[in-house]
Amino acid sequence: MQQSSHPTIILGGGFVGLFTALHLSQQNYPHPIILIEQRDRFSFKPLLYELLSGELHSQQVYPRYQELLLGSHVAFVQDTVKAINLHHQRLTVASGKNYDYCNLVLALGSQTTYFNTPGADKYTFPLTDGAEAIALRKHLRLRLHQAIQAKTVEEQQYLLTFAIVGAGPAGIELACTLADLLPIWYDELGGDSDNVRIVLVNRSREILKGDINSQLRCTVQRSLKYRQVELLFDAAVTEIQSDRVHYQQHDQQRELQSGTIIWTAGTTPNPLLADLPVTAEHRDKRGRLVVKPTLQLPGFPEVFAAGDCAVNPDAPHPPTAQVAYQQGQAIAQNLKLQAVGKPLLPAQIHLRGTLMKLGLNDGVANIFNKLQIKGQPGHLLRQATYLELLPTPAHNARITTEWLTDELFQRHRPFTRTQLGHTPFLPGMAAIAASLVLATPLVWRAAQPQQFQQTLSWSGVPTLLNQITPSTR
Ligand SMILES: Cc1cc2nc3c(=O)[nH]c(=O)nc-3n(C[C@H](O)[C@H](O)[C@H](O)COP(=O)(O)OP(=O)(O)OC[C@H]3O[C@@H](n4cnc5c(N)ncnc54)[C@H](O)[C@@H]3O)c2cc1C
Prior knowledge:
By secondary structure, the protein is of the alpha/beta class. The protein has three domains: about 10-110 and about 270-340, FAD/NAD(P)-binding domain (3-Layer(bba) Sandwich), CATH 3.50.50.60; about 120-265, FAD/NAD(P)-binding domain, CATH 3.50.50; about 365-470, no CATH class. Helices cover about 35% and strands about 20% of the residues. The chain contains 16 helices and 23 strands. It has a six-stranded mixed beta sheet with strand order 3-2-1-7-19-18. A four-stranded parallel beta sheet has the order 11-10-9-15. Helix 9 links the parallel strand 10 (about 195-200) and strand 11 (about 230). Helix 1 packs parallel to helix 10 and helix 14 (about 425-445) crosses helix 15. The longest helix is centred in the C-terminal third of the chain and has 21 residues, at about 425-445. Bound molecules: flavin-adenine dinucleotide (FAD). The site of flavin-adenine dinucleotide has 32 residues, from helix 1, strand 2 and helix 10. Flavin-adenine dinucleotide binds next to helix 1, strand 2 and helix 10.
């Protein structure tokens, strides 16, 4: 049994950190638990587009830590970690305070990288947390207002051109969302929505290159085409200015004038990791920390690392939320085992297919690379899956109920019937498709409840159905 009066400290309150803290808190863990996070709110990143569009509101996908951790055994400290001394088991935060720890969890995630592109950090909008989503929403609205008042056609074209750099999943999901959303907002102001232009700028010819979602490429391409998103392929961005993107394409230097430039082109591990006493052989080529299958740092058995800032070379997983939250659960389990002197277990991570948002009320779910559920049913499945993951049972129950009310019973609708017609599915067809999607699992649940629960628990569908029609068994 480990004896120490020092706390277990979790650095970073993202998917790994928050879920580690919440799981530990429920496990009768003998040490104090401190979560240190620089922000006051948790960003549920896969649902940031919904925060931007207003489909979900900030209490749902951008809740305060104080609220999430209320009643837990976790002490929340809002501060920025500045230095970590692994040898002395001590860290320093921006306010100048030092903390000694018995165990440390490195859950510091990644940050946007601009690949040294001049002007990119100054003139582009990132989309990596709730605050950035809200700032981007304000800017988009401002541009549309300015476009209404524009004095010349050229000025209006510039204001209504929205460039997104990077055709990875975030760039594509954002492009589809904006292609549906901005025409609605512009219509509301009395503008001609046909003038709104969304341009996706991509370095290679391939979208979703090397991404876990690459199986969805054909579906995504159709969706972009349907929404008339312009694609600039083989376009290597060389410089960003306040009003334009400079890029090189087929040996020619070109430029795109744009009133809004959004950067989704790359991430790099948290820079604090670079200062740790970890040799090059225990880092991957991106600088992420190499961890053992138990998620411990080699040479520092009291330190765990996971999520976007770490990699287990024996079982590498993509840097995604679905991996990170499972790792949080595994770390909590191992901390508890370590505290009671038992052998630690390798983290078991199950990949559960992938999900993408392809516009308002539109999405695709890729189930084990075998089945794709598209359109509004895909959207419903995606929402249900993520709502299932929202932290803390109380929070989860409230949001799921709110969302069900909005989506299925249509009491409150942020978008009108004609506006929903912007999606590839007519509303009526979508409702029928959604009913079919819901009816099949209902029959399955009634016939084989255990198998149903086991097979689909990853997807959130059992919880979703229990909310709508509680099982009689
Ligand atoms: C727009 C977007 C959409 C995404 N969509 C999906 C999706 O659909 N599906 C999916 O599976 N994944 C998705 N991801 C990826 C997923 O969100 C990440 O893989 C996941 O958040 C990684 O979890 P993490 O805990 O490692 O890091 P994070 O969630 O990034 O958390 C790191 C935390 O550390 C904090 N922090 C950093 N530095 C410090 C410091 N010095 N001091 C204190 N705190 C600090 C940060 O504020 C942050 O809260 C998306 C990401 C983005 C940006």
